[in-house]
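pipeline/complex-builder :: batch 7 item 3
reading input block
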Amino acid sequence: MALSTQQARELQGLISQRRNTLITELRDDVRKTRAERFGEVAGEVPDTGDESVAALIADLDQAEWGRDIDELRSLEEASERIAGGDYGVCVDCGRDIGFERLRATPAAIRCIDCQTRHEKTFASPGSPSL
Ligand SMILES: [Zn+2]
């Protein structure tokens, strides 16, 4: 990976931040939806706090949250790629994605050229971008 340790750390920070925001939002949504669906009072559902992200994703694996789930999933994967050292490399062409693009879109798995091409090829909304 062509990123310096400091850059990788900065991007990891951005990913964690965004991930936590998303998880909080999604947990809220789940709670509200459960309340609506099962007549529970929102807030009575215990917040265990240790509910794994995988469980949360499974819970939310429905169209209404598809976009957020996709983002959360890609953030998880980005986080794993940073840990694994293969972060920041375009999955299509193998070139470096570039620090500036990663800073704007930390979960990016493609360079701008490939992303543009990908979006033209797979234009249907909601389809997984992986
Ligand atoms: Zn590329």
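note: Helices lie at 5-38, 53-59, 66-84, 99-104, 112-121.
queue -> next item
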